[in-house]
């Protein structure tokens, strides 16, 4: 279907890059893997650890609530991404959408969209310092690797991957993310199985601490119910990205026959992060490390929990898992930030040049600012997440009629037609170029 309006400016033509074939969409599962790559990372390991240290065991309960409520929010984001995505064919060959595209194409706020895109691609890379800090700390603790070496290797390998564009990113994420998620979940389940007798007590503590203050024990200063809510929801949002608008970006490039069908992946996406966060939280709570080791925080806390359960092998496994999760998250986050660059420069030759320069800028915080204090890094990411959530909720509220229209169209018309053996045409969007629309017709 055609989009809403023409682009603000015509792209600078350069025939060598012009293509006759439609932009290359990626399969739904690859889009899902790219999205999960930006979520199943240190936020599910380090974020949970910092939430438990600051908010007590009850923080895990509020992370669950955040995830359950976020499933519908993520589905709405994906519908918006599919509905207001655009086709770039001059500077690149790709479907794309992000918050700025929605702000302009759905709300008509062109100036606000430019400001938002600049803020996103300038500030976005600095949230990845959380990932590098976690990797360098885990590898130094488990293998004695110098943090600078870890940061450089991480930066170089990430740069090589993102330089390959969406095809390389999505192909690698499709293979790495599911494998590492399954391995990590199995490792956490091992801790639960070996300590099965205290699983009921762990859940009782989580529910009790979610609503009542948690007494200080040993080196743990105790946490109030307010702390549990604050840190549980904040880390929950960071771990599953529901409501932050990343679902708009990651799923816009997916090939699907209807936006609502693609949105169903969002439920599984958030549920996956919920499982990983639960495994991390229960591992820390059941081994009691967040109280017994008050001097340990960030990624090291989960590492200590696995070392207590499996010995040195557990520590080595966690260090490797954190490194791979952080690596995939940095790559997945780059794709999200790069869409803001694409919006700011449009479908022009300048966009190709700017994207190449941005790859270098994106890696600078990851490589050179890995030693910033974890508390400061999490405070910054919490502020950015809160801003993104406010913007995304505005989109969902303002476009609720269009979201429900597509939802009803899928379930009341499209699905019944499929069940009757009919072949209804796909409901797809993808261009705001009026000339291209006319040629397609």
Structure described in brief:
The chain has 441 residues and is mainly alpha-helical. It contains 19 helices and 2 strands.
Structural features, described:
The chain has 441 residues and is mostly helical. The chain contains 19 helices and 2 strands. Strands 1-2 form a two-stranded antiparallel sheet. β1 and β2 form a beta hairpin. α6 packs antiparallel against α17 and α10 packs across α17. The longest helix is centred in the last third of the chain and has 34 residues.
Secondary-structure topology with pairs:
Blueprint: H1 28-37, H2 42-55, H3 58-83, E1 86-88, E2 94-96, H4 99-105, H5 110-123, H6 129-143, H7 147-162, H8 165-194, H9 199-209, H10 225-240, H11 246-251, H12 259-287, H13 289-292, H14 298-310, H15 312-345, H16 349-368, H17 374-398, H18 400-419, H19 434-440
Antiparallel strand pairs: 1-2
Helix pairs in contact: 1-8, 1-12, 1-15, 2-10, 2-12, 2-14, 3-9, 3-10, 3-12, 3-17, 4-5, 5-15, 6-7, 6-14, 6-15, 6-17, 7-15, 7-16, 8-12, 8-15, 10-17, 12-14, 14-15, 15-16
Number of strands: 2
How do the helices and strands follow one another from N- to C-terminus? HHHEEHHHHHHHHHHHHHHHH
How would a crystallographer describe the biggest sheet? Answer: 2 strands, antiparallel
Give the terminus-to-terminus CA distance.
10 Å
> Taking strands numbered 1, 2, ... along the chain, how are they ordered across the largest sheet?
1-2
Percent strand: under 5%
The class by helix and strand makeup works out as: mainly alpha
User: Which geometry do the CA atoms define?
Assistant: globular
The Cα radius of gyration reads 22 Å
Portion of residues within helices: over 70%
Instruction: Give the overall average pLDDT.
Output: 80
Put simply, the count of helices is 19
Outline the low-pLDDT stretches: 1-24, 432-441
């Amino acid at each position: 279907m055609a989009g809403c309006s023409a682009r603000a400016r015509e792209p600078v033509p350069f025939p060598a890059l012009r293509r006759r074939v439609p932009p290359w969409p990626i399969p739904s599962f690859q889009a899902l893997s790219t999205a999960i790559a930006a979520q199943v990372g240190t936020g599910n390991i380090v974020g949970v650890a910092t939430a438990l240290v600051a908010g007590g065991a009850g923080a895990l309960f509020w992370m669950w609530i955040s995830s359950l409520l976020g499933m519908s929010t993520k589905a709405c984001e994906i519908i918006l991404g599919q509905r207001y995505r655009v086709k770039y064919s001059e500077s690149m060959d790709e479907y794309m959408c992000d918050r700025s595209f929605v702000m302009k194409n759905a709300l008509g706020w062109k100036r606000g969209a430019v400001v938002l895109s600049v803020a996103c691609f300038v500030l976005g890379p600095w949230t990845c310092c959380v990932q590098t800090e976690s990797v360098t700390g885990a590898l130094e603790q488990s293998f004695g690797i110098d943090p600078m070496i870890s940061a450089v290797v991480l930066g170089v390998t990430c740069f090589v991957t993102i330089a390959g564009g969406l095809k390389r990113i999505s192909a690698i994420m499709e293979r790495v993310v599911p494998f590492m998620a399954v391995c990590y979940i199995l490792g956490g389940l091992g801790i639960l199985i070996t300590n099965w007798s205290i699983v009921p007590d762990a859940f009782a503590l989580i529910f009790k601490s979610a609503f009542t203050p948690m007494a200080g024990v040993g080196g743990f200063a105790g946490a109030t119910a307010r702390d549990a809510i604050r840190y549980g929801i904040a880390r929950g949002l960071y771990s599953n990205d529901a409501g932050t608008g990343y679902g708009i970006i990651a799923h816009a490039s997916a090939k699907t026959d209807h936006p609502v069908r693609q949105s169903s992946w969002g439920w599984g996406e958030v549920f996956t992060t919920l499982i990983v966060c639960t495994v991390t939280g229960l591992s820390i709570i059941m081994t009691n490390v967040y109280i017994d080791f008050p001097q340990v925080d960030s990624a090291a806390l989960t590492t200590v929990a696995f070392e207590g359960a499996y010995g040195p092998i557990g520590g080595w496994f966690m260090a490797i898992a954190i490194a791979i999760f952080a690596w995939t998250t940095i790559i997945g986050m780059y794709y999200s930030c790069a869409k803001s660059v694409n919006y700011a420069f449009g479908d022009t030759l300048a966009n190709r040049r700017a994207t190449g320069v941005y790859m270098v800028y994106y890696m600078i915080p990851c490589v050179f600012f890995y030693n910033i204090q974890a508390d400061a890094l999490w405070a910054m990411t919490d502020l950015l997440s809160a801003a993104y959530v406010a913007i995304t909720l505005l989109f969902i509220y303002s476009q609720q009629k269009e979201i429900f229209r597509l939802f009803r169209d899928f379930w009341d018309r499209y699905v019944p037609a499929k069940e009757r053996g009919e072949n209804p045409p796909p409901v797809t969007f993808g261009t705001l170029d009026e000339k291209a629309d006319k040629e397609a017709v």
